[in-house]
Amino acid sequence: xxxxxxxxxxxxxxxxxxxxxxxxxxxxxxxxxxxxxxxxxxxxxxxxxxxxxxxxxxxxxxxxxxxxxxxxxxxxxxxxxxxxxxxxxxxxxxxxxxxxxxxxxxxxxxxxxxxxxxxxxxxxxxxxxxxxxxxxxxxxxxxxxxxxxxxxxxxxxxxxxxxxxxxxxxxxxxxxxxxxxxxxxxxxxxxxxxxxxxxxxxxxxxxxxxxxxxxxxxxxxxxxxxxxxxxxxxxxxxxxxxxxxxxxxxxxxxxxxxxxxxxxxxxxxxxxxxxxxxxxxxxxxxxxxxxxxxxxxxxxxxxxxx
Length: 306
Known about the structure:
The chain is mainly β.
């Protein structure tokens, strides 16, 4: 009876040790995924959004690899490639995540992950994604953006600054400012948004200041759009887009518009310039500006009405 009991105990112990060994072996063989970046946050407002490139590396070889976005994010995210086949251990795999805002989505924050699957198995260590859906961006105010259908560009140089006025009758949030410019893709200019120009204008009147690069169009009257992403809330009132630069090339500048586009939030104002003794190179918005003529500078304000 004692011998039978001993045998039974030995069998049980052997079974336990086998389970422990199998569990340990499985733990050692379990793949570990590392993502770079480790987390992605994207804001969508309906405008084209740059895709995000990500890489992942597995600690062990994987077979029949596919990438899956959880259902809560599938309307926003697509992955290329989504099917990778076999993935060697330690070799980074590059994928591109494309983001878009579907029509009719209510503003809000959406969270989820991207899974790596090997055959029917989901591998741990996911890529976390946060999407902030904002109200869709729309045209608010501005002009057409001609490429070659224009008679001239007005140079933005050290000896000449430009100012385009506009008036708002409704409060708006501006998310993008588009300017139609010409240039050689090298020199920079400064974009200002102010509520005043001319003597007496101070830094307190500056609502936005950012540096942009003239596009590479070959100069002259060949134009291309330069977009400035902004985050600007403006109340009804009069405003100015001021462009200044320290470059000397007269073939780089701001394109003339053909027409002002219909708007429900305001109107396009006067285009002005300053040069010679009227310049204030230390603070361009406070220079003395004079009207250029009936055609405005080519620009568009995009965003939404508040």
